[in-house]
Specification:
Elements: H1 15-32, H2 35-51, H3 82-99, H4 102-116, E1 134-135, H5 157-165, E2 174-177, E3 180-183, E4 190-195, E5 198-206, E6 213-220, E7 225-232, H6 235-238, E8 248-250, E9 258-261, E10 264-265, E11 269-271, E12 274-281, E13 285-290, E14 295-300, E15 310-315, E16 318-323, H7 324-327, E17 334-335, E18 346-349, E19 359-368, H8 376-382, E20 394-403, E21 415-416, E22 418-420, H9 450-458
Parallel strand pairs: 3-7
Antiparallel strand pairs: 1-21, 2-3, 4-5, 5-6, 6-13, 7-12, 8-14, 9-10, 9-13, 11-12, 14-15, 15-16, 15-22, 16-20, 16-21, 17-19, 18-19, 19-20
Helix pairs in contact: 1-2, 1-3, 3-4, 3-5
InterPro entries: 6-hairpin_glycosidase_sf (IPR008928), Beta-AFase-like (IPR049174), Beta-AFase-like_GH127_C (IPR049049), Beta-AFase-like_GH127_cat (IPR012878), Beta-AFase-like_GH127_middle (IPR049046)
Pfam families: Beta-AFase-like_GH127_cat, Glyco_hydro127C, Glyco_hydro127M
Amino acid sequence: QHLPVDEYNEPGGHAGSFGWFASGLVDVAALTGNPKYAAAVDRLWQNLVDTKMCITGGVGANGGIEGFGPPHYVHRGGYNETCAASGQVFYNYRLFLLTKDAKYFDVMEIVLLNGLLTGVGLEGNTFFYINPMEVNGEWGFNMQHQKGRFPWWKVVCCPGSISRTVPQVPGYMYAHEGDNLYVTLYAATETEATLTSGKVKVKQETKYPFEGKIALTIDPVKDGQQFALRLRIPTWAREKRFLPGKLYSFKEAPPPWSLQVNGKVVTPRMEKGFAVLDRTWKAGDKVQLDLPMPVQFSTAFNRVVAYNGRVAVTRGPLVFCAEEIDNGMQIQRLAAPQLPKPDQVKVTSIKEGLLKGMPLISFPGVERLEHEVLGNREFRVYLAQPLKPYEGKTRPATIRLVPYFSWNNRGEKSMTVWLPHKVEAGKKGVPLEWIAAKAEKAPISLVGNVTAIAIHNKSGQP
């Protein structure tokens, strides 16, 4: 960043460095109480989720600088460095502490479970530097042109980011202030918090993020203790979008969530994304939160050129992807020209192997029999393009998807997050302009980078 704080309007430069810089800026805002710092970090965050974040929470699509391009420049090829995901975890966590707003944890959870976890193999000893949305099984996208994760690399920032972020997750589960106890992440955990009114023990029992039922047992130090239990209700469970921001929208609104206290349905008030239960508590009180997890299909804002005509599949807080190993063909041959009806979508559990116990989503689609095979250079160009009309022969096929964080653990074959759906009327596969609204300006933070300057010039803006 090269501007005074008062002039910060959007992220720029190296995406990993931005996350750490922004985290520090939030700390300065908290320590000084200076409103200009708080206003700056809020503007930067809003611009990030509105124009620059992948559906996995990954940021930094411009591989030339491992950083940000102009607004809406996010594409299926990445770059989404693992370090940048780590920075987003720290940034959003601090924003929550500053504001007590659940929207920051909503983003942080998506980053943790998708954009960050994919950076490490399930056995914990191999790593991604780059986290693309689509590969063809031939393109060596990772360091040293590898098609999979590497065990070690002379630039060890990403393994280091994993090892310093994951151990902090237990500290992100709960927060408290005065007589307010926040449940910010859901997992089978227990803790003891010291509130103004006294100590409280909380125990969670759940299979989240694979299932949406969360059972909590509340044990205050004394019966009749009054405090507010605040349960985060994620964006994906209460709005028609997967995460905060203007980039992605569900095709269907989510079903209603529900809350019970000692077996009785309650309707809590909502404050900043939290369901608030402010009452007197006794030992053994039970709270049951039910967050339904239907399979959802998302489309992207039409200025995000690379996602035009495609859909992404999510369930709960997890992004899913189609891998060649589960589908028996190069994944670029598959398409979903008609979205399935709810009764056509199946969610089962993987029975064996490294992914045992994880959900497997399946639904009907088609195989494109005349799919064009591209060389690696052409494939990388294709990753930044909208869907083009496909009018050749097709035949029925079943599309199977697994959690994105688990991909590339069973072979280095093709994968995609964004499935071909249908070309929007009037688009005909023609790329949209980089910036459609002339009132918007390409970020001046791009100045000084050759790749970024080329993109800036294509936008036709001063």
